[in-house]
């Protein structure tokens, strides 16, 4: 018998410290969202962006600018045996052709990224690896020259097909993010065997690609032994240090600027080959060089989400309470570098279970190196876990919202640490109320003509990360303030939010605060990644501005010196505190879908998410991030699909014509709300990250809604028509079936 999720009693959300009445009130954005949005400052750089004045990495045009074009390898494994460049050098405008025979030697440090050792060896580790680089006066000449380069190879048999029983599979020590690859609690096998209800399912997520609007671009210039690079990067300090090590320079002799960045989603989190190649070409030609990677080369050179295979086993009592949980992940990395998608880690956080097993296995193959993609690990891992929870709810005859409520843990299951704040149950219940979940589920799967209607839910989590940062604020004699920190705005509104934090700490209008970010010569700060930007940078900004305000107060209104008054803050020591708490953001996503019974086409009619992500500093930018994440999750659920061609070892979908992402017509209604939560155990602002939590549960909510509409359980993303057609009802009340 199904239980009403809105009124059912269960484990109270927010158990543990820091969760009293002041932090678990629900923000009624249905009535107040318009006011919140109106009060939120608009983006400081909005005018520059809409007028085209904002300068991205490819918009810098120093005198004498040359252009570079990479030549990708056409084999997946082997060696270059010959390179003929005569025809390329004869192309008008071509200035140079760099190969492994004449490229500058690079110094990849121990433990460094081997994917950046470009043009250093004839060895080819994957198809699409840069085999040569052409530099010319115009992009057109560079491309023509690249097409004229002739390369001969000694190809070797390659291995690119991931299977559940691949003989090369092994258990690594760590998964991405430093998480132990294997964690076990209790006696899973015995508990699972004795469970009243058992679920044993396998889910699959194929390789996915970031494809930011701005391709990876760098403009590099050398002068007097110093290197300046304008790069589309999520963190200039990381790129600065990487380039200094590779070229044998002092860090101070490298300046990296990322003033504006057109998206990244993780693919620009660290230095990528394009910036190394641009610097290399500029050194060899003596000219400034711009390299904008062609979109077709992004999948091979800038990272991607690795494919993952998930075996999820859930054992429960008759009432749905978990007694055993296992999430075992199989994935792959390249022969160049071990990167293990940490997809089983969320299962260590989400639900109470006395017996647990979470593992990762990986195989090294002749493929491009995987890397971070928005919500790495959490997005594919939670798709599998939340679909399995939906299957368990069905097996137990329990409402899917109520099942999650019944399995709310009092502390982080694997570590036993108390949560700094956790309001997942409030998110579920508030989301159910706003979505009108009770009515949707009570009517069962509906139908409008040929459209089958259904609704689904999934929970989500993402770690609330924070890193050490520095910031400096200057009080000027004219009453204005200059904030300086090496944050990076990749489209999230970082400038605006940091100005807000500064203005609040200084008790001045935001109009009196100017912000400088995105340069490696500014006070050091971590990259924009892991949803940790605002929490990390904002902490340092808050401390610097609080300190400056105290200094100004101590002066008793005395005039400032002509150079102004500065205050600097460094949060390195403070960040190390608070490790006794488990710190995460949580959310609940709901989806309503319609499935065409004739074609199997799935349309999402409505997405709704409610999140517990700390104090929301700017309703305007927060809503943008949360809805953007949900749209990306919708895209992951229904559209994004990449095939690794086993014959050539190449991703077949390499552009936006073949790799489909959600567009306006795919997104009729997306609603984002949040629970009021002020978690000062994380930082003084009480803020958590919001960049990735929106995507995490969305794909599962959509897949669960498809099952509710059709009765067909799809366990591999994306949910495609061919996955549904054989099992959809047909005229006459008959039903075609296949083994699901």
Structure write-up:
This protein has 19 helices and 29 strands. It has 740 residues and is of the alpha+beta class. Among the domains are: 21-36 and 421-464 and 583-733, Aldehyde oxidase/xanthine dehydrogenase, molybdopterin binding domain (Aldehyde Oxidoreductase, domain 4), CATH 3.30.365; 467-575, 2-Layer Sandwich (Aldehyde Oxidoreductase, domain 4), CATH 3.30.365. A hairpin with a 2-residue loop joins strand 18 and strand 19 (451-463). Helix 9 packs parallel to helix 18 (698-710) and helix 16 (619-638) crosses helix 18 (698-710). Mean pLDDT is 93; it is low at 1-27 and 731-740.
Draw up the topology in text.
Blueprint: H1 29-39, H2 46-51, E1 66-72, E2 78-84, H3 86-89, E3 94-98, E4 123-124, E5 130-136, H4 139-148, E6 150-155, E7 174-175, E8 179-180, E9 183-185, H5 188-194, E10 197-205, E11 217-223, E12 226-231, H6 236-247, E13 254-257, H7 273-285, E14 289-292, H8 298-301, E15 308-316, E16 322-334, E17 356-365, H9 378-396, H10 400-406, H11 424-435, H12 437-442, E18 446-448, E19 451-463, E20 470-475, E21 481-484, H13 494-506, E22 513-516, H14 533-554, E23 565-570, H15 572-575, E24 584-596, E25 602-612, H16 619-638, E26 644-645, E27 650-651, E28 670-674, H17 693-696, H18 698-710, E29 716-717, H19 721-724
Parallel strand pairs: 1-14, 10-29, 12-13, 16-17, 21-22, 25-28
Antiparallel strand pairs: 1-5, 2-4, 2-6, 3-5, 7-8, 9-17, 10-15, 11-12, 11-14, 15-16, 18-19, 19-24, 20-21, 20-23, 24-25, 26-27
Helix pairs in contact: 9-18, 13-14, 16-18
């Amino acid at each position: 018998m199904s239980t009403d999720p809105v009124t059912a009693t269960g484990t109270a959300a927010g158990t543990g410290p820091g969760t009293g009445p002041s932090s678990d009130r629900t923000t009624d954005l249905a009535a107040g969202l318009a006011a919140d949005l109106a009060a939120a400052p608009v983006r400081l750089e909005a005018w520059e962006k809409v007028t085209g004045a904002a300068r991205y990495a490819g918009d810098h045009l120093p005198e004498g600018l040359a252009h570079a074009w990479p030549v990708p390898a056409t084999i997946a494994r082997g060696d270059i045996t010959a390179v003929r460049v005569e025809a390329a050098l004869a192309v008008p405008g071509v200035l140079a052709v760099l190969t492994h025979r004449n490229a500058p030697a690079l110094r990849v440090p121990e433990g460094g990224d081997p994917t950046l050792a470009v043009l250093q060896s004839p060895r080819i580790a994957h198809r699409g690896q840069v085999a040569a680089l052409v530099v010319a006066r115009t992009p057109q000449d560079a491309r023509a020259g690249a097409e004229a380069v002739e390369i001969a190879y000694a190809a070797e048999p390659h291995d690119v097909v991931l299977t559940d029983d691949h003989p090369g599979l092994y258990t690594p020590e760590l998964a991405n993010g430093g998480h132990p690859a294997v964690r076990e609690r209790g006696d899973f096998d015995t508990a699972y065997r004795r469970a009243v209800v058992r679920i044993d399912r396998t889910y699959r997520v194929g390789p996915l690609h970031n494809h930011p609007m701005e391709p990876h671009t760098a403009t590099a210039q050398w002068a007097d032994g110093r290197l300046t690079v304008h790069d589309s990067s999520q963190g200039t300090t990381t790129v600065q240090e990487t380039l200094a090590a590779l070229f044998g320079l002092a860090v101070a002799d490298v300046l990296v600027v990322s003033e504006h960045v057109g998206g990244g989603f993780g693919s620009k989190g660290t230095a990528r080959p394009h910036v190394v190649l641009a610097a290399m070409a500029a050194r060899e030609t003596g000219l400034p060089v711009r390299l904008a990677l062609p979109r077709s080369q992004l999948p091979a050179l800038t990272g991607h989400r690795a494919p993952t295979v998930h075996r999820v086993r859930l054992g429960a009592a008759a009432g749905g309470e978990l007694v055993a949980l296992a999430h075992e992940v199989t994935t792959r990395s390249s022969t160049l570098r071990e990167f293990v998608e940490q997809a089983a880690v969320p299962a260590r956080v989400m639900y109470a279970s006395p017996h647990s097993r979470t593992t990762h296995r990986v195989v090294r193959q002749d493929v491009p190196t995987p890397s971070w993609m928005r919500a790495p690990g959490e997005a594919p891992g939670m798709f599998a876990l939340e679909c399995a929870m939906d299957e368990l709810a069905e097996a137990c005859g329990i409402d899917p919202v109520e099942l999650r409520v019944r399995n709310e843990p009092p502390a982080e299951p694997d570590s036993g640490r108390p949560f700094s704040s956790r309001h997942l149950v409030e998110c579920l219940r508030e989301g159910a109320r706003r979505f009108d979940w009770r009515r949707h589920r009570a009517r069962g799967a509906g139908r409008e003509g040929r459209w089958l209607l259904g609704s689904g839910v999934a929970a989500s989590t993402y770690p609330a990360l924070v890193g050490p940062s520095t910031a400096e604020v200057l009080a000027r004699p004219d009453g204005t303030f200059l904030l300086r920190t090496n944050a990076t705005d990749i489209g999230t509104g970082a400038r605006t939010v940091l100005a807000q934090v500064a203005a609040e700490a200084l008790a001045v209008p935001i109009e009196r605060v100017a912000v400088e970010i995105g340069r490696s010569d500014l006070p050091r700060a971590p990259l924009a990644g892991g949803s940790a930007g605002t929490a990390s940078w904002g902490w340092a900004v808050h401390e610097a501005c609080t300190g400056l305000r105290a200094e100004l107060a101590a002066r008793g209104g005395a005039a400032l010196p002509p150079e102004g008054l500065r205050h600097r803050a460094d949060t390195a020591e403070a960040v190390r505190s608070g490790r006794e708490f488990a710190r995460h953001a949580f959310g609940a996503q709901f989806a309503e879908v319609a499935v065409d019974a004739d074609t199997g086409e799935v349309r999402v009619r409505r997405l709704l998410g409610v999140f517990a992500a700390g104090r929301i500093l700017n309703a305007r930018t927060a809503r943008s991030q949360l809805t953007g994440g949900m749209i990306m999750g919708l895209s992951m659920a229904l559209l994004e699909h990449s095939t690794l061609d086993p014959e050539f070892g190449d991703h077949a979908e390499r552009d936006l014509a073949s790799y489909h992402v959600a567009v306006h017509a795919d997104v009729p209604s997306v609603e984002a709300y949040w629970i009021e939560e002020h978690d000062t155990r994380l930082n003084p602002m009480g803020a958590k990250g919001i960049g990735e939590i929106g995507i995490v549960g969305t794909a599962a909510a959509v897949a669960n809604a498809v099952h509710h509409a059709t009765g067909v359980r799809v366990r591999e993303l994306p949910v495609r028509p061919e996955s549904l057609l054989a099992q959809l009802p047909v005229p006459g009340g008959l039903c075609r079936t296949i083994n699901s």
